[in-house]
Amino acid sequence: MDDSPGLETSRLDELTWREVESALERTRTLLLPVGSVEQHGHHLPLGVDVFMPEAIGEMVAERVSALLAPPVPYGVTPHHTFKPGTVTVSTETFQRYVFDVCDSAADWGIEHVLLVNGHYLAQDPELEVVVRRLRTESDVEAFHVPLVELFADVAEEVRTGEVSFHASEFETSIALELFPELVDMDAATAVDPPAESLPLTDYDALGENRVGWAFTAEEMASITPAGNVGDPTVATAEKGAALVDAAVSDVVTLIEELERRRRAE
C-alpha cells in the first residue's frame, strides 16, 4: 500500500490481515454493497442490483481511503418471484445477516459503515432498521445509502422517459455505463404501468411516493409481462455516466468528512 488518498487495494477479501491492520491506520470506513438477485426484464441480468453498488464502491475507494467489503447479494425481493432466477430471503434473515457482518467488522476497528443499496426502494425499510441497530447496539456510525437518492437530482435532469420504475431508464443507463457487455438492448422493451395509482403512490422511482407501500408477486405479474416497468429503450451510457458520477461524488464527500472528524478527535 502507498501513501496516496486511496488504498492500493481496497477490496477487503483481497487483503491479508496484516494489510487490513495497516489500512486501519488511514481509514475506519467500510463500504458494504447490498443488493439482490432478481429478474430485470428481458435485457438486464439478474445481478444488476449487486453489480451497481459494488462497481460504485470500487470507484469511491479509488478516490478516498475506504475498505470495500464483498457484497451481500441476496435481498428481500418476494415481488419478483413471478419470474425464474429471483432469489429472496426473509426480512428477518436479511437484517440479521447484514447486522452481523457490520457488527463483526466493528470488532476489528471499523467505525463507519456505509450500506450502499442497489436494491433501493424495495428494501429501504429493512436497511433503515439495520442502521438504527448498529448505531444503538454496536456503536457503529452506520448509514443507509440508497443509490436512487444519490443520483435523483441528476436523474431528473437527464431523463427522457416519463416512467422509470424497475429495470428501465435509470438502471439500464447505469448498466450500459458500468457493465455494457451484460446488457441486451435489442431485447429491451417498454412497459407502461397502469394509468393511475393510488393517492400518495406512484409508479416511478422519482415519483410522488409519500407513503410506504409494496408490490406482491401477483401484482407485478399483472403489471409487466416482460419484468420491467418503464421504458429502457431510452437509456444511454452517457446518462449512466452522469448518474454514476453523482453517486460516487456524494459518497466520497461523506467519507471524507467522516474521516476528517475522526482524525480531529
UniProtKB/TrEMBL annotation:
InterPro entries: Creatininase-like_sf, Creatininase/forma_Hydrolase. Keywords: Hydrolase, Metal-binding, Zinc. The keyword Metal-binding applies. Its cofactor is Zn(2+). One of its GO terms (molecular function) is hydrolase activity, acting on carbon-nitrogen (but not peptide) bonds, in linear amides. It holds the Pfam family Creatininase. The keyword Metal-binding applies. It comes from the Archaea. GO terms for biological process: riboflavin biosynthetic process. PANTHER family: 2-AMINO-5-FORMYLAMINO-6-RIBOSYLAMINOPYRIMIDIN-4(3H)-ONE 5'-MONOPHOSPHATE DEFORMYLASE, 3-DEHYDRO-SCYLLO-INOSOSE HYDROLASE. This is Creatinine amidohydrolase. It comes from Halorubrum cibi. The lineage of its organism: Archaea, Methanobacteriati, Methanobacteriota, Stenosarchaea group, Halobacteria.
